[in-house]
Design brief:
Elements lengths: L1 H55 L9 H39 L13
């Protein structure tokens, strides 16, 4: 009876480990896809700014350029927001790595000292 229980217990643990690995893979795939999308949007904003600057170089300022000026400001804000988002994602990833190291007892500062955790 105990061998059968041990076998079932090991199967449950293996299943949970495989599910956690699948979840981790899914999170990593999602993060990679989101980063590619963010970089694409930043490239589009940067390209739009560059094109509008190139096309209007040498022209006199006119009232008809106000919408273009507003668009360039908004594209610049979009580019800045994309950079801030990537910085935030990287900071959170670094904090998660530190937390995993602390939980595993491998952190260079905390180590295995339970009072520092």
């Amino acid at each position: 009876m105990s061998c059968k229980f041990r076998f079932l217990s090991n199967r449950i643990v293996e299943t949970r480990v495989m599910a956690l690995q699948d979840d981790t893979d899914l999170v990593l795939d999602h993060r990679a896809a989101q980063s590619r999308y963010d970089y694409f949007l930043m490239a589009v904003a940067g390209s739009a700014i560059a094109l509008s600057v190139q096309r209007t170089t040498g022209e006199l300022l006119a009232w008809s350029m106000i919408p273009l000026g507003i668009a360039v400001l908004l594209w610049g804000f979009s580019f800045f927001a994309g950079i801030r988002r990537q910085h935030s994602v990287n900071a959170v990833s670094a904090l998660n790595l530190d937390l995993r190291q602390v939980r595993a007892g491998d952190h260079p500062i905390v180590g295995t000292d339970k009072h520092l955790v």
